[in-house]
Amino acid sequence: MRFIKRFLVLSFLVLVAAGLSAFLLLRGSLPRLDGELSVHGIEAPVIIERDAAGIPVITARNRTDLAFATGFVHGQDRFFQMDLSRRRAAGELAALFGPIAVALDQRNRLHRFRNRARALIASMPVAETTLLSAYAAGVNEGWRSLDVWPFEYLLLRSKPQSWRPEDSLLVAYNMFLELNDERAVRDTSRGLAREALPPAMFDFLYPQGTSWDAPLLGQPRAIMPIPTATDLSAVYLESVRRSNAPVNFERQVIVGSNNWAIAGSLSDSGRAIVANDMHLDITVPNVFYRARLKVAGAAPLDLTGVTLPGVPLLIAGSNGDIAWGNTNSYGDWSDAVIVRRGDAPDSYLTPDGQRRFTTYLETIQVKGADDEELRVRETIWGPLIESTADANQLIAASWLAHKPLAVNLRGLDLETAKSAEEALDVANQMGLPPQNFVVGDAAGNIGWTIAGRIPLRGAYDATLPADWSESSGWLGWLPAVEYPRVLNPESGRIWTANARVVDDEALGKIGDGGYDLGARASQIRDRLSASDRFAATDMLAIQLDDRAVFLSRWQRLLLRVLEDGAGGTELRQYAKLVEGWESRASADSVGYRLVRDFRRAVRDRVFSMLMQPVRDRFAAEARLSMSNQFEGPLWALVVEQPAHLLSAEYASWDALLLAAIDDNLGDYRDNYEGGLSRRTWGELNQALIRHPLGDAVPGIARWLNMPRDSLPGDSNMPRVQSPTFGASERFAVAPGDEAHGYMHMPVGQSGHPLSVYYRHGHEDWVEGRSSAFLPGDARHTLALKPENWGKSGGRIP
User: Fold this and answer.
1) Helix ranges (DSSP H) in 495-621
2) What integer pLDDT is reported at residue 389 of this predicted model?
3) What count of other Cβ atoms lies within 10 Å of the Cβ of residue 709?
4) pTM, two decimal places
């Protein structure tokens, strides 16, 4: 018995010692925040101050040293995040995670971004490569200054790899993957629909816009009349009539990002106001990193906003003279190219005759397993992505990111831009995933344009797969002077929200890459039009607007169906909850969730019914994408209820609507506990904001992941929110009056769970509370000094 007690005590002490050792080891990977540090790679001392939230204010004497110090803090706080970004773009995750990441590596290695980044570095101006080299040196000094490697590498039992200048370009390419349709899936799926549907039905189901549109240039689009029975073939009508199974299709992905600008004539300060909330996948740590970057020398700079770890630039914010923000443009930046095989082996047809495919053998290193080989075949337009039903045809993807000039560092010029017009000129020369760029200046001017390169296309339908074997596809780049832009509109207001911004010739230049329904944009426009005087702080209420304007007519339709149909106790309770829904996507609203689920169930049934021919024309597994403008034809159908477009499964359109209700009620009963009154929106819309390793290692999920908060907001309203997607930052600022601006972001500055900055500010983001745009008073001060500074008699100011 005594032996057992001694054994238990000894075991307990061993566990305590092991836990204490692990804790001390993890603490060793926390960054140093105070004191002096001698580093190699800067010309003069740099001061890094951090406020109570861990937001750094970096003061250097020249731009190159500032790039070094920016890399240093990124390397201290976010190196693992940066490593994942470059590895994802390069298709090198399996070397860190093993076989589980091979499929993703194969998908992304197809683009050979590591090779493209190296080639791009070799052709960039010396000033840009110098900045990237300084940043890379700072990153490596940052993570190597830790007493212990970043904690993730301890868990993975892997060694961090040095940062290289080309890796910053890989981070940029990773954003292309995040924001673009890199395989032109939209084109190929629409191509299937075009083949399977009568022309009148295809045009009806795939409109360019709806009555919800709120473009800066142009008008909303009227929906085409519903095709009559005589407009459609008997084969198609019979296919719809016997439809009784769902077609396999891509569910709509929630999209977000809002930005707008208010002219100085409408602001309290006389300065323009720029508001921006970029919506992305929310992970731990957050995609962005707040910072204030200053050069106190002959060419002074004072930049405040958000940076992207891995890149030495300010992505959005203010330089004191201008403020700017971005939303994804959803222009058409990739094309599906039909590649016709040639007569010679491994050849294909081009306008200049037959050519052989260029073949690359890519080696994917796999941790704990043998290497995987990937054969990549490229055409003059881009890599092959798939075959077609025709054995003589293949599909290649021509994508903006594959082109040599798609990425550059021209964004540096925004740092010194003095006016909105100058900033628009810079934006048109920048190389990045093309964005809706909104800017305002201290004199009160505002503007919009596309930031990023725009391809110049030949005469073909860019929304469908096209054969480029006899005529050119892309003809080069659209000249910057031909970019669409808006400067100082008469209304004094500019807004974008991933929807159609322009019309006619301007829209032809940008194209339709799946831009969003205009409901969110129109709600923002209407809020901005409701007042003639603004302060920066007024913008937060618009960013947090969760009113269900878009779903209001669906609530009325649902009540009408419930009123006309017979029902028992459950349906009466259902109707009561729908009637009292409050018309907001609040976390505690049951009615909002019921209306939302009703629309989705109706939408899926109608789309599947009208797309039944795809099951007849192609394999049942053929996947279609639903247009983001499908709301237009959908609403016309449920209102007009054409009998010839109804499956025999339903006695009437109202029967289809009631079947959607029954589906939802069955889902609630089968998959959730408790009655209807517990089916709140917050029950479904719970945060799943996770660290990449949060669910991979048992027992540490609570330590690494954010809480499962119930969140307000949804799609088709300014406060875009899903469990894993939402505002990666929210700010509003008048340039030159940054002290009265605000900003907050999810999660925290640090990527280390033992840091007090790991979760700092996250609750403010959840609750929608504003934080100051500028960092607060310094709580920590770290001085970086050149290795030989003391020897040369220099001193830190």
Assistant:
1) 504-510, 519-529, 539-543, 552-564, 569-579, 590-610, 613-617
2) 56
3) 17
4) 0.94
